[in-house]
Amino acid sequence: MTETEILSKLTGIFRDVFDDETLVARPEMTAHEVDRWDSLSHMDMILLVEEAFGIRFRTREIVDLMNVGDLVRLIGIRAH
Amino acid sequence: MTILLDNSNYTRMLRIARGLEGNQRHLPELRLAILADHASQQLSCVLKAALFEQGYFPTIYEADYATGPMEVYNPSSKLYQFGPDVAFLSLAVQKYRDRFLAEVTPKGRETLPDAYLAETLGVIDALCHAGCSVIVSNLALPIERMFGNYSALTGQSLYSSVLRFNSILAEAIAVRKACQLNDVMYLANRFGVESFLDERLWLASKSLCASKFLPEVARSVARTAAARKGKTTKCLVLDLDNTLWGGVVGDDGKEGICLGGDAYGEAFQQFQRYILSLKQRGYILAVCSKNEAETALDCCRNHPEMILREEDFAIFVANWDDKATNIKYITRTLNLGLDSIVFIDDSPFERNLVRAALPAVAVPEMPDDVADYVRVLENSGLFEAIGYTDDDYHRNQTYREEALRRTEQLKYNSVDDYLNSLEMIIDCGPFKAEQLPRIAQLIQRSNQFNLRTQRFSEADCERYMLDTSGCVTLSARLQDRFGDYGLISAICCEIQERWLAVREFVMSCRVLKRGVEECLINNLFNEARKRGLVGVVGEYIKSSKNAMVKDFYNDFGFDLVRNDGLRQVWYLDVERYELKQTSIREMSE
Known about the structure:
By secondary structure, chain A is an all-alpha fold. Chain A has 4 helices and no strands. In chain B, strand 1, helix 2 and strand 2 form a beta-alpha-beta unit.
């Protein structure tokens, strides 16, 4: 799966979870830039990503995520 | 109606909740406060959508509870300024686990369920005392079993400790009239505890459960809240062919249908047993089948493998009319609202026809396989009860007698002749303690003959009953030669200066227009006279369902003294009231 494909899927999930139809997922994007991205909606997002890509993150990975780019790389490694 | 167990359902409900602001104000408001010992933001959002599904405009307050129940014990807190109708107390098993693991002595662990219950009841009772209905979640069973199978046998295990807490919590809730249970243990068990409790979510965001299960938790709360407000179904309208047995009796004959015998036939018997247990818990059963009446009846009377028999149905309609027409006939005959009907039919055509013609009727989507019928009906969440009384057990019989009476009525020339032939006896008097559950239930269930729709709770009724100098209560039981109607009316009045003011007045529609109303009003005026009062004040408050009684006080000669549209105040002097004659004999003390 290419980075573009992953980002496009993430865009759909972000719009759902963070309730903003204008959001576009970018690698350098962080939680601070998005209004509704807090610790609770972060977990919603993680669960939706797991479901969408058929993967499961480890707690360490969830904690270590710094930006969307990290998330894309992680999905790239896990998803087939 | 299979539950969608993925996140799409969850995100859909989040969207509904966010889209709600202000634009559904025409719905009745339901004010709910969440008190949760876990993060409640997500749950609160989904709960909004779930209450909206039940037909309410939700206003939700998230109490600051995770840090302790301070708000509950402070009468001037934001919680009480908000003024909730319902307080929902949501408890996470992970919090209980923290407490259990912090108890280091065997004695501390042994007694934790009782200590935890005492703390929880402190909160519950403070909320009840403030006039809220309270819905309390029990705990999901934990994954941890430090003793393996032996865990269930020792109070030293977290697993046993949670089981015991849930069990004594249920006992405590059962005796608290303003309190209901939200059975999270059942939900987690049905979905599988392993996926319900996501430890990563607890660690990262203190969420009660994986978010895809929040919709079902919220719906369970919303249904209980709605049931408390009187929104319950009462009658199952059942198809016969391929619903209660396999095959078509008109084509295959009584001997040719599938019922009992092999796995397929036993599946239908199993479904019939489930329906029978719903009848025993208070549902009225009706048949609505496209069949020759004699063929269908013969099968119910004489097929050796039938579990349900003719007398299990309050009314038996088998003809070739369309089912919407027949359902309307059934509701008219049994005097039920269309919104109290659940229609169960294997045919998608019939289901869609009824949905289109009668949108108020609940029509669960039945699966292809009869073995899945029970599971699907259980998932529909249509069978929420908030209590159980003897009258529930006898309800179907009562309605069956009523349908027989209506047939009998056709034989008489005048209404009076008919009423006299019934040999009715009424027993009127103040509330008795043992009647309170049934009285509260009648108040919750009566929508049409309900003059003020205040929905007094059992606790409210008890208060009126005990205050014999400041209040007057009146309940009535009715019987006739066909059977006993049980308790059919309840009235709560307050004495104000020199008047008797009616605060709650409900009557079962089953006994409409046969003299009961006259007996009740006679009794009220007799009581007012006995207490030296000069008049009776009645009010009619318009609801979406009580147009039936809008002229009630007018018909008894009351004068309209105030009218602000939705609320009319009526008054009549004791001196001016003439006792009404009826065909009902009053039972003396």
